[in-house]
Design brief:
The chain contains 6 helices and 8 strands, in the order E-H-E-H-H-H-E-H-E-E-E-H-E-E. The chain is of the alpha/beta class and 172 residues long. The protein has one domain: 3-Layer(aba) Sandwich (Rossmann fold), CATH 3.40.50.150. 29% of the residues are buried.
Length: 172
């Protein structure tokens, strides 16, 4: 299988995935976001068509149906609504039918900033969250928002963690 990991490369996740014989493609999606949209107003810059095109080429330039799964983690929270729609459509196109996508969303509705993490898979039951500071989310996602966001996918399942995170598993 081919797996896309948007948390950036780290040895524990690479070892976990490749020990099963799968291929792993990693990119630090937040770093790409900061590089493409970080000068000036982060969210306003995400409406610039030229910057969006540059971002998509640098972060999501993969052929259609290239992946059997995607580890998206918490990066979708930091996308403006217009860019979010484009990125989710692109992720759907990059996934093979029947494949899965894992995303994480913070559950604090009124928080001005939320912790940002680097996610590292350490085993079947262990994911380490390494702090990357705090960020302002573009919007709050409740279950209905998430169902609408992933409406073109086959199914959406939600799991609430004790860390005030909502894990979402989406099947294409």
């Amino acid at each position: 299988m081919s797996i896309l990991d948007l948390a950036g490369a780290n040895q524990s996740t690479v070892s976990f995935i490749t020990n099963y014989g799968h291929r792993l493609y990693s990119d630090d999606f937040l770093l790409q976001l900061d590089h493409c949209f970080g000068q000036g107003d982060f969210y306003e810059n995400q409406t610039n068509p030229r910057a969006i095109e540059t971002f998509l080429r640098s972060a999501l330039d993969f052929p259609d149906e290239a992946f059997d799964g995607a580890l998206v983690w918490d990066v979708l929270e930091y996308l403006s609504p217009a860019l979010l729609t484009i990125v989710v459509e692109r992720l759907r196109a990059m996934l093979r039918p029947g494949s899965s996508l894992l995303a994480v969303f913070h559950n604090e509705e009124r928080a001005e900033t939320v912790p940002s993490y680097s996610f590292r898979i350490h085993g079947h039951r262990t994911i380490q969250l390494a702090s990357r500071g705090r960020r302002q989310p573009a919007q709050f996602f409740n279950n209905r928002n998430l169902e609408k966001l992933f409406q073109d996918f086959q199914s959406v399942k939600f799991f609430l963690t004790r860390d005030h995170l909502r894990e979402v598993i989406v099947r294409r």
